[in-house]
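Why do we care about 3D structure at all? Because function follows from shape, and shape follows, mostly, from sequence. That is the central idea of this module. The next example makes it concrete: a single protein chain, its amino acid sequence, and then its structure expressed as tokens.
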Amino acid sequence: MKLFINLVLSFAMLALCLWLVWPAPAERHELATAFTSLEWSTFAPYLFGFLGLQLVVHLCRSLRWNHLLAPLGKTLAPGPLLAISSVGFMAILALPARLGEFVRPGLLRRHGFSASAALGTVAVERIVDGLLIALFVFVAFFLERGPGAPGWMMPTAYLVLGVFASALAFLVFAMRWPEKTVAFCLRVSFLQRLTPRIARVIETKLLEMIRVFSVLSDKKNLVAFLAWTIVYWVCNGLGVWIICRAFGLPIGVWGGMATMALVAVGISLPNSPGLVGQFQWFTLLGLSIYLGHGVLDKTSAIHPTALACAITQHLLQVAWYVAMGFIGVATPWVSFSDVWSARKNPVAATAPPDLPPETGPRSAGA
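And the structure:
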């Protein structure tokens, strides 16, 4: 039933976002013109710059995972780590309802990792990414505040900051006093009085999640993970800025960062298959902060160019992750049968018991 609900939400998001961005017959000519007006000689430097940044993004996104795996007592050699990560990133795009999130931890089983512990590191990764993106959104929106800013921008910025501060406070207190922190949160939410059964389920799930936070207590690996993560997101934002410049859209570097952050928030919602429509609409929403509401107006002169820019960036990223995923499958460390079995929740599947910590991390590929 849960899978069915997720699939319904995924395809509902697809229908909504396609309706929001699909050009009417009268606008398709302008959209085609925005693409055909590009000249290879002027577009190529931007394209190669974007692909260079995408390489840095891919390496940072993949290699940083070792710093969450290290506190578990093991790490992976760069080869298998890149192969598993590349296939996992492709699966996140290809599979609906976020089933792709299970692929990376599922693929680690054959390398001697506990499936539940590996899935927990992915959860920590998502939490840290969410906190950092919330900070990006607030800073970018705060710098752009003023009489010309859209009315929804600053309320959104303060809402995101509030979520960031609350999540950070919960993380700090939960690592120090897990049971007391969860009990306090349930008490102030009145869930224990309104729905005691649901409150007990939430309490169990929260305590399970908090146990995974123990990987953050390793300060050396935490600092390294945060450094990789900051470089990863900054390069993502620079990639948005470069593609916008390729289409002649006059936004600054912070405009690229803000658009990237808003897209990251948008695709954290129930995702449409391949993020089709969803990626484009949130890109347009981010660009509208810097280029005006006309970016969202299908009858405006700037809309076709902005939409062409969003489509191009999405296609480039999809092509990149699909290509890297197939390269990962072609390596000795991953096979299609591994991917097919790993698509299921690895915690529910049969997994080896948790391994005792070793003295210092070692390479699983050694």
